[in-house]
Amino acid sequence: MSANNASVSGQLQNKASEPINEESKESRNGENSPGSDEEYASPHSNTVASRLSYKEAMNTPLSTTAGDTNTNGFMEMPASSTCIEGVSPMAIYNEERMRRKLQFFFMNPIEKWQARRKFPYKFVVQIVKIILVTMQLCLFAHSRYNHINYTWDNRIAFSHLFLRGWDSSREVESYPPSVGPFALYEKSEFFDTIDYAINGYANMNRSIGPYDYPTKDNSMAPMKLCLYNYREGTIFGFNESYIFNPEIELICESIPPNVTAVGVEKYLEQRGVDVSFSSLVKATLVFAIKTVNFKAYGGPLSAPDCFKFDITMFFDNRDHDGQMLLSLDADATRLHCKGDVDFISDAEYDAILRSILNIFVLLVCVLSFALCARALYRAYLLRCQTVNFFRAHFNKELSFDGRLEFVNFWYIMIIFNDVLLILGSALKEQIERKFLVADQWDTCSLFLGIGNLLVWFGVLRYLGFFKTYNVVILTLRKAAPKIFRFLVAALLIYAGFAFCGWLILGPYHMKFRSLATTSECLFSLINGDDMFATFATLSSKANWLWWFCQIYLYSFISLYIYVVLSLFISVIMDAYDTIKRYYRDGFPLSDLKEFVGTRTEEDLTSGVFMNNMDDFDQSSFIDVMRKVFCFGCCRNANASSASGPTGYTSLTSIIK
């Protein structure tokens, strides 16, 4: 053995030869304090003087520990002549192996490269994934914008063609609204609006848009008018009486093309359909149109698409307040273009290139999922070994904080975004290959958007290896529990203001018409948005209501802007100051981190982490499943592995 081993062993033997005072005798009798070194004593020792705490072992440099390294970087077992009296040399050897194994586990990719030349596969995969996923998202966002813009423009065109009285001012969403609701107020307007839509559909060839009927010979298809009525709904207002049965009955009539000659009102009378507006809940007029989109803004790589628009006109009379709201909706369905299709393009490989990109994203996400899931599983196995090691060597359970050190929440987040990206890429491929006829653009964008968001969040893990950026991450982590508790109290006050404002101001203020709009208004006021308009748009129906609104708004704004937000910022600043103090005075250590100890640059380059230890034991599929689903139980049966060198996970197994 080396001279360093001899010196360390001599120091330990001198420690063992010191006289045992009265306090140590009491400790031997079981009255030692919970924080004493005897709490971590090895079960192999028989005397207090011969026990070695992991705190002392932690403070011993790696180059002078019981297991020295040879010229090839392999750790040698200590000779029996240098061991402590009553302490097995195998126990010291296994403790040092476990410490180095854990030290390597908690290294970042840069340190692992310095210690063992381990290539950072997961880091490279994440960088490649960011590039590919961002390219995929940009292409899909451009295509989705063109698709949504195309369907919206067609909806505006249909409104001009089929809605009687439609005005261009309704196409611009303004706040506050510049026009009132688009509604009908007379019975004749109901039938005139339907006649106007039928005439527009019959003379669709006058439209600028390339619209056709959904029939094989391009003849006008019948329209369908559906009436939703109460079974009984007769009102006698002169004597305050009524006959009412709330059961809804549905009556649908097919409107032929020749109905324009007589009008829809007389046609319904001939069919025996009586339209009673006192019992009418709503009505719909449904018809379809086919068209082809040449994609002027799609570029030379985009082939034309064929669509079918299912148009529905809604007549909403549910409130029975003398105002029947009118609206139009158009659902686009992509069709497979057939017949005389001749698409001339200089770039015929657009679909192939997009498919290749989608396939690469799928493969990279699957690889990322496999690597992160494998890392989590191996961390779980190492956690079980560490728990059993603490039980066998120190007669104590590993603390909850120590167990939590093995759970990498970054990997969990990466696995989640991999699943989202895999689903989104599969949907995107089906949309671009036109395998889906339903409109799945929104679903696909949801998967790809959230997945890309989490991918960029995952980069913070690697920025956390640098002190400047890690301060932000640690501050958020430190402040998260306090912020959550603070928000619970703040939300209770917020909910009280929201319900109160909705109840009292709802009938008289447009921003408080519903609970959702009330919450949106209050949140905007917290951020100082649109304050004057909120005060100015209050109805002056009653003096007491005006005074209540003033007190209500002033008290809410003052409380949340000057008190709640200031306290919220102070909570975060307190966490930031705590993290800065930790950087100055040292971070609090769990029992696991105390056992692992610190490492220096010399340790990383000395070759002590290059030794070839035993790999994970080869387990059957049933054993693997048992370990995965029994996630919280590390069986004592594995504790026997702590007594011999072959039972420990090697550095090689962690690297794999």
From TrEMBL:
The protein here is known as: Polycystin cation channel
Q: Name one GO molecular function term.
A: NAADP-sensitive calcium-release channel activity
Residues covered by the Mucolipin extracytosolic domain: 149-338
Q: Which CDD domains match?
A: ELD_TRPML
**Membrane topology qualifier:** Multi-pass membrane protein
* Reactions performed catalytically: Ca(2+)(in) = Ca(2+)(out)
What are the transmembrane regions? Answer: 356-377, 406-426, 446-463, 483-505, 551-573
Could you tell me where this protein is found in the cell? Cell membrane; Endosome membrane
Q: What is its main location?
A: membrane
Keywords linked to the UniProt accession:
Cell membrane, Disulfide bond, Endosome, Ion channel, Ion transport, Membrane, Transmembrane, Transmembrane helix, Transport
- Organism source for this protein? Musca domestica (House fly)
Q: Where is this region: Disordered?
A: 1-46
Q: Where is the Polycystin cation channel PKD1/PKD2 domain?
A: 449-579
Pfam families in the record: MCLN_ECD, PKD_channel
Compositionally biased residues, Polar residues? 1-16
- UniProt cross-references to PANTHER family, sorted A to Z: MUCOLIPIN, SD02261P
Q: Which domain of life is it from?
A: Eukaryota
What cellular-component terms does GO give this entry? endosome membrane; lysosomal membrane; plasma membrane
